[in-house]
Design brief:
Helix content: 25-40%
Number of domains: 1
Distance between the termini: 47 Å
Number of helices: 5
Order of helices and strands: HHEEHEEEEHH
CATH class: Alpha Beta
Number of strands: 6
CATH topology: Nuclear Transport Factor 2, Chain: A
Length: 158
């Protein structure tokens, strides 16, 4: 199996572990000194703590699923765009929000560095504002006004 196939296999196993809600499998894919950075939360996890991020997502939705929209590869570096959907059926712990029962679909991206057959680093970006909006959390007045005005401007364009 060539080097690109190994990296792509690791990245697919990473998605599959998320999709299966399997924090132990996720941790097993990380290099011993690997990092997982969640940019919207401003949090950095080592391989020993990545299961906490899985618990965070499960606190939001017990039925979330992830599928890749695209994968771009350059040797041991890969970028994936993904789509997550689920139901907000649990308390969203970091924000102390009660379950809304609302369905959501958000996009995000993972940027990987793969060494050997492990994740050396993964930076995660995802649409926190879109998620909060879909589960019924409205932004404060001034922010809501600007977002509404922007939506009106963009809807006039097409």
């Amino acid at each position: 199996m060539g080097r690109p196939a190994v990296a792509r296999g690791v990245v697919e196993a990473f998605r599959a572990a998320w999709d299966a809600h399997d924090g132990a499998a996720l941790a097993a894919l990380m290099a011993a000194d690997g990092i997982y950075e969640v940019v919207p939360q401003g949090r950095l996890f080592g391989a020993d703590l990545i299961e906490q991020q899985m618990a965070f997502m499960q606190s939001l939705s017990s039925d979330f699923s992830i599928r890749y929209v695209s994968v771009v590869e350059d040797g041991g570096r890969l970028a994936t765009e993904w789509e997550m959907e689920g139901t907000n059926d649990g308390p969203f712990e970091p924000f102390r929000l009660t379950p809304s029962g609302q369905r959501f679909t958000i996009r995000g991206a993972w940027f990987f560095t793969i060494e050997e057959d492990r994740v050396r680093s993964c930076r995660a970006y995802w649409d926190l504002a879109g998620l909060l909006n879909q589960i019924g959390v409205r932004p404060p007045g001034a922010v809501a006004w600007h977002l509404a005005a922007w939506a009106e401007e963009t809807s006039d364009d097409g």
